[in-house]
Amino acid sequence: MRVRVLGCHGAELGECGTSGFLINRSVLVDAGTVCSALTIAEQRKIRYVLVSHIHMDHIKSLPLLSENLIENGVPQSIVIVSLKKVIDELKRHVFNDRLWPDFTKIPTPTHPLFRLEAIDEGTAIQLDDLRVRAFAVNHTVPCAGFLIRDRRGSLLYSGDTYRTDHLWKAAAATPDLKAAMIETSFPNALKGLAAQTKHLTPALLADEFAKLGRPNLPVYVYHVKPRYRAAIRRELGKLPVTNLTILEDGATFQV
Ligand SMILES: [Zn+2]
Ligand SMILES: [Zn+2]
Fold first, then answer.
1. The pLDDT value given to residue 158
2. What distance in Å separates the CA atoms of residue 251 and residue 19, rounded to the nearest whole number?
3. CA of residue 73 to ligand 1 center, whole Å
């Protein structure tokens, strides 16, 4: 699969956009940055959005996407997929006709722009040529990590998380795992803040990654807070993780 980085940071600053990734042509993983990085023609090809959780830096392009795509009729709804707890929070706090018009009912409740689909932890769902499983991770609100598979292999996406277990266990039991996208938000000196806000530091990333038992697996780091980029980069460079890349907005990589 081809992963295009629309934005990969944990905050917005200057050129740094928040987390949004396009897999192949039709599947988004999180929607922090979408509309400013894709043409209208590319936005029209989106069929699915995997949403890890409802924090603003992961969903803020959804309302804006609706503005770009809404017509009198929609040929096909965009399906927003996550664990039930995340979908419930989306209904309650985002698609609620308060923050923004409820595009799960517009233009019509039977053919809306967005359709919400809750999946059970660990149960695979087919999204075009991808098979996706979601696992609860340890964040301040309900949050999902994903295992995304195509015929060439599987990719792990950590979601926003502190120390966690289910996702690593499932990933360790995935023989065709080819790469892991793992969040890292704060430098080691801010481990207290990382624990409070439930994010990883470089030292915590190394601990969590070790749970996979595959030291040579390619790791793509995302969700770096732009203010701490230099310190995080330095600390990641010293980790005993052999195949680590810090993602940049606009990059693409192949899994
Ligand atoms: Zn975030
Ligand atoms: Zn978050």
1. 98
2. 13
3. 33
- The residue-averaged pLDDT of 177-196 equals 98
CA of 58 to the centre of ligand 1 (A): 6
Q: What is the pLDDT, as a whole number, of residue 34?
A: 98
Which contacts of 226-234 are long-range, i.e. CB under 8 A and separated by 24 or more positions?
226/9, 226/10, 226/11, 226/12, 226/13, 226/14, 226/16, 227/11, 227/13, 228/186, 228/187, 228/190, 229/16, 231/187, 231/189, 232/184, 232/186, 232/187, 232/201, 232/202
Question: Would you call 218 helix, strand, or coil by DSSP?
Answer: coil
Distance CA 147, CA 33 (A): 21
The Cα–Cα gap between 41 and 59 comes to: 20
Predicted pLDDT of residue 74: 82
Provide the whole-model pTM: 0.97
Nearest ligand to the CA of 57 is 1
Domain 2-247: CATH superfamily is Ribonuclease Z/Hydroxyacylglutathione hydrolase-like (3.60.15.10)
Domain boundaries, the chain: 2-247
Which ligand is nearest the CA of 183, by number? 1
Quote the mean pLDDT of the chain: 97
Categorize the per-residue pLDDT at 238 as very low, low, confident or very high, splitting at 50, 70 and 90.
Answer: very high
Sign of the dihedral defined by the CA atoms of residues 122, 20, 149, 233, in that order: negative
Parallel/antiparallel/unpaired status of strands 130-137 and 143-150: antiparallel
The closest of 8, 16, 117 to 58, measured between CA atoms, is 8
